[in-house]
Design goal:
It is a single chain. The protein has eight helices and seven strands. By secondary structure, the protein is α/β, with parallel strands linked by helices. The protein has a seven-stranded parallel sheet with strand order 3-2-1-4-5-6-7, sandwiched between helices. Helix 5 links the parallel strand 5 and strand 6. Helix 1 crosses helix 8, helix 3 packs parallel to helix 4 and helix 4 packs parallel to helix 5. The two termini are 30 Å apart. Bound molecules: NADP nicotinamide-adenine-dinucleotide phosphate (NAP). NADP nicotinamide-adenine-dinucleotide phosphate binds next to helix 1, strand 2 and strand 5.
Length: 252
């Protein structure tokens, strides 16, 4: 039987747009006390405005250990516990490796890999304080089917897959269920903002020649709301259900 999130404390990184925002909305609607983390305060506020119940926004850069520590100190002060940590914050770059700037490396590795490392490290004592709970990390289909020009995204998400598997073993004795979601394309998130028109113009023929566009890119992308519903289902499954790696992708 599905559980409830009523009264639970859910921290959602990347909660201001896309999948994170849609999942946070659903959690709040079902009675969770939700904490949204992202860098831009205006987008956090706009997201929180549309949500029911208790929603705390904390402008946070997950690539910074100090910023994440400060955010969780605030969560501890306010709630004293965390029941759910949903790591959605993510960025990508389209770059040939020789054109990859230090900023691109730091953005991808910092957000997609160091981000969840920082949030999990800070959340674990608070998940223990709650008597256990869920950590769900959002990875990407790029870890199953590689594409050219996205190597920093691939490397950082592969790192996330490995970190998540290690945490699953390390935290199971604490009743903390750790899951990895390998996600396919989303239609309506802000992820496209990661790419300029020029990036896309250059990448298209390369991806076409690689076969990526017919292998993966041809399927109709999912909506953030659809994915949020599936994530909500995972987060309310009974604790005895293992959901180590879940692949959510457009059918076809
Ligand atoms: N979109 C897709 O097709 C797709 C496919 C597969 C997997 N995914 C993965 O699914 C997740 C959600 O994707 P989405 O498309 O919903 O993304 P999105 O709409 O672009 O949202 C990204 C979120 O992450 C936040 N963020 C970015 N860098 C951050 C940082 N350093 N610190 C804190 N927050 C940060 C953004 O807010 P700020 O910029 O204000 O910080 C925003 O809230 C990501 O992990 C992505 O890699 C997406």
């Amino acid at each position: 039987m599905a559980g409830t999130v009523q009264g639970k404390v859910a921290v959602v990184s990347g909660g201001s747009t896309g999948v994170g925002r849609a999942a946070a909305e659903l959690l709040a609607q079902n009675g969770a006390q939700v904490v949204l983390l992202a860098r831009r305060a205006d987008r956090l506020e706009a997201a929180a405005l549309g949500m029911a119940g208790t929603v705390l926004t904390i402008p946070t850069d997950v690539s910074s250990g100090d910023s994440v520590r400060a955010a969780f100190a605030e969560v501890e002060k306010r709630f004293g516990r965390v029941d759910i940590l949903l790591n959605c914050a993510g960025v990508a770059r389209i770059r040939a490796i020789e054109e990859t700037r230090d900023e691109d490396i730091h953005a991808c590795v910092g957000t997609n890999l160091l981000g969840p490392i920082h949030t999990v490290r800070s959340a674990v004592p608070l998940l223990r304080a709650a008597g256990g709970g869920d950590i769900l990390n959002i990875s990407s289909e790029i870890t199953l089917d590689h594409m050219p020009l996205m190597s920093m995204y691939a490397a950082s998400k592969h790192g996330l897959n490995g970190f998540t598997a290690a945490m699953r073993r390390e935290l199971r004795a604490d009743g903390i269920r750790v899951g990895l979601v390998i996600l396919g394309s989303i239609a309506d998130s802000a992820f496209v903002e990661n790419f300029s028109d020029e990036d896309r113009r250059r990448a298209h023929p390369v991806w076409e020649a690689d076969g990526y566009l017919t292998r993966v890119g041809a399927a109709k992308p999912l909506s953030s709301a659809t994915v949020a519903g599936l994530l909500y289902g995972l987060l309310t499954n009974p604790p005895e259900v293992g959901q180590d790696v879940v692949h959510i992708r457009p059918a076809g």
